[in-house]
Each structure stands twice: as C-alpha cells, then as structure tokens.
Task: structure prediction
Amino acid sequence: MKKTVIAGNWKMNMTRAETKAFFREITTQIRAKGGCGVVLCVPFTDLAAAARGARGTGIKIGAQNVHYEKKGAYTGEISAEMLREAGASYVIVGHSERRQYFGETDETVNLRARAALAAGLKVIICLGEMLDAREKGVTDEVVSMQTKLALRGVSEKELRSVIIAYEPVWAIGTGLTATPEQADETCGVIRATVASLYGKKAAKKLVIQYGGSMNEKNAADLLRMPNVNGGLIGGASLKPAAFSAIVAAANENEKR
Ligand code: 13P
Result:
C-alpha cells in the first residue's frame, strides 16, 4: 500500500526563534512514527534548528532549493552536501515561485533533482500548469512535458527517492483549490506519464502530492482521491494546529 506524505513548505517565513517555538508546539501534536510521512521544508537558515526540534519525532526536514554543482564560484547558492550536513533529508525543486520569479527552467529543475538524488537526498519535484493553460485545455500536455523533462536521466532506483508535487499555479496562495476530481485527474496524468517512462509498477509506488491552498478543511476530501498521495502545504504549514490537523486527516485516510 502507498504511504501518504504530508510536506510543509514554509517559503520565506519563520526566523530561527520562531522555528524553535513551532517545533516545541508541533511535536506535542504530531508523532510521525507509524503514521503518514511528515516533512517540513524550511528556509536554509532554519535547517539546523528544525532538525534539532524534530529529533526523535520521525518528522523529516527539507530545504526549498539546491544548487546542481558540488561546489565552486556560485555566489548565494547552497549544495546538496551542505543541506545534508545542516540536517536536511529532503529538498523541494522546481517550485512555481522559483520558476516564476527566479528563472527556473525545466532544464535546471532536472539538474537540481539529479544532483540532489546523487547526494542521497529525497526530492520533491514541483510542477503544474498556469491558469492560462488550464483555460486553454492543455493542462495534461503541460504537466506531462514537465514530468518528462524533470525526470530525464533519473534512474528507476533514484525514482524511489522522488515525490512529485502537482501544484496548479492558479491555486497557490490564492485560496482557490483544485476540486478533488481535478486534482485526481491531473495527478493521474502525471502517474500515467511516469508509467510510460518507468513502467506501471514504479508509477504505482510513486507518491504524488497535491499542493495549492490545501488546508485543514479541504485536506480530507483531496487525500481521499486515489491518485493523490499527500499534500505540499504552504500557508497552513506555518500554523501548528492547521498542519497537525492535515496530518491527522492523512492518518485517518490511511486507515480506510
Ligand atoms: P499554499 O498552500 O499557501 O497555497 O502554497 C502551496 C505551495 O506552494 C506549497 O509549495
């Protein structure tokens, strides 16, 4: 049976002091051991504090980006090895905010994913269509292409360390959520694309998350869909009560 993974993406929020306070609170509410996978992707400067705060709880810590070179003259960048040393076991690549504001392309998403995998990190690859693509009826083509380009050169073995997060850009931070049916359908397209590359068995095992205004109210309905195996949560992951309610909804769903 597939395991659900609930991941938080804090984006550029939370100081180190706030991180410590968050973990003091969340660890009284969440025990990730035995239930669904729980990951929190925090700013680079919070990684060490988050890793310390999560010790012994089963909650995994991730970063929100990684550079594809091992080291060198890349001012402002962070390598996969640096992330691991700071306590990260996961990293998000290709978030739409990086694609929109920081020039991230399908090619650099692929390079980052491969570098992170080679360094032993688990990777959450984000993709999803813009509103314009949804309105023009080309969502399936867009997500299928993004999936293929992100996974170029990723081996079948490495795929086991990959999560794909389907995040329709029009649903991020807008309060607009894809309907459970829309989320399921597009996650299904991603799974079919992965099946065409790696075979049905590997595609079945792949965790595909939905992201975009997921919260404690809509999580249960989204997580119930067969192709949705978790969530990537922005705003609601900053609030311990909301985030732990989503984790609880995922644990309930796993029991069904
Ligand atoms: P929101 O949950 O704030 O819409 O953000 C989603 C997201 O971008 C997670 O990566």
In short: The chain has two domains: 1-127, 139-228. The longest strand covers residues 122-127. DSSP finds twelve helices and eight strands in the chain. Residues 139-228 form a domain with the TIM Barrel fold (CATH 3.20.20.70).
